[in-house]
Design brief:
Rossmann fold; 2 domains; six-stranded mixed beta sheet; four-stranded antiparallel beta sheet; 28% strand
């Protein structure tokens, strides 16, 4: 197990930022950490990065305890904060060489590793550019390049796509996919839920410092599906079709949404093919019939509003 927290708690005076957090993240996982602002995501990542001490409880990285064995942890992790620090008087290559030297990488090995991370992050063409002249997206990629210099096992990324334009977000997502395929264990906090769904193997949802869910994305989507909802569009006589469906067995609720008749079915009804048959038998022409999708965004909204127990 690469990451483990046991009753991890962090308090600032009377404010509890983390409350008995229990996480387990396996080697090679890409873990998406989501929650509202102030939920405790950054606090968790800073503790794992050895930048904060817990009030009580325990955090382990590669089986080393944060606080007691932080010197052993730091060479194993790469931490990317949500905002880039100011390095106005350095060019990109100097910036990376400076951090490589901090990890005791020197000579030909330093030249090689700097070239490798520039290639991996698609920044080779910017090696002579001033760091402060880079766009927000390139600075974020440079941050990732920096933490890859010493080839860490674990990457801790706090809102890596924050403030990026759509193109820069796509480029960052593709870079993270490449790192995942290289076998890195990655923790990402983000508000861009559809991108986490594409990228991550597991997720955790946190609110008010408490972990509401931790597991596979498919499992949370199933858990958030409160009922089967079906969207139906007919060619004409929509109101009559709605009245018919309201009297149909298995339908518990009928409403209208964007020109569609939305049906909510009871817990025992999973096959809704009879809905189409009922409409055809009553001479209605069907334009569209489909089940409402429940995705990670829907699951997040329902869980953080307390709609799922």
């Amino acid at each position: 197990m690469i990451i483990q927290t046991i009753n991890l708690t962090k308090r600032y005076g009377k404010l509890t930022a983390l409350n008995n957090l229990n996480l387990q993240i396996q080697d090679g996982e890409c873990f998406g950490y989501i929650g509202p602002n102030g939920a405790g995501k950054t606090t968790t990542i800073k503790i794992l990065a050895t930048l904060l001490q817990p009030t009580w409880g325990e955090a382990r990285v590669c089986n080393h305890v944060v606080g007691y064995e932080s010197r052993k942890i730091r060479p194993l992790i790469g931490y990317v904060p949500d905002f880039f620090g100011a390095y106005e008087d350095m060019v990109v290559q100097e910036y990376l060489e400076f951090f490589a030297s901090a990890y005791n990488i020197s000579g030909d090995a330093r030249t090689q590793v700097v070239g490798d991370v520039l290639d991996l992050t698609d920044l080779s063409h910017k090696r002579d550019a001033m760091v402060d002249s880079l766009s927000r997206g390139m600075k974020q990629r440079l941050s990732v390049a920096r933490v890859l210099l010493h080839d860490p096992k674990v990457l801790l990324l706090d809102e890596p796509a924050s403030g990026l334009d759509p193109r820069a977000r796509i480029e960052m997502r593709e870079l993270l996919k490449e790192l995942r395929n290289m076998g890195k264990t990655i923790i990402i906090s983000s508000h861009i839920l559809h991108e986490l769904a594409e990228l991550c193997t597991t997720i955790g949802i946190i609110e008010h410092g408490e972990l509401l869910y931790h597991g596979q994305i498919d499992d949370i989507v199933r858990r958030a599906r409160l009922a089967t909802r079906v969207h139906v569009k007919v060619v004409e006589q929509k109101d009559l079709a709605a009245l018919l469906l309201q009297r149909t067995k298995g339908v518990t609720k009928v409403e209208e949404n964007n020109g569609a008749i939305v049906l909510e079915l009871d817990d025992q009804t999973h096959d809704f093919s009879y809905i189409a048959a009922t409409l055809v038998q009553n001479n209605f022409k069907i334009r569209e019939i489909k089940e409402e999708e429940v995705n990670l965004e829907t699951a997040f909204m329902r869980l953080t509003k307390g709609l799922v127990q």
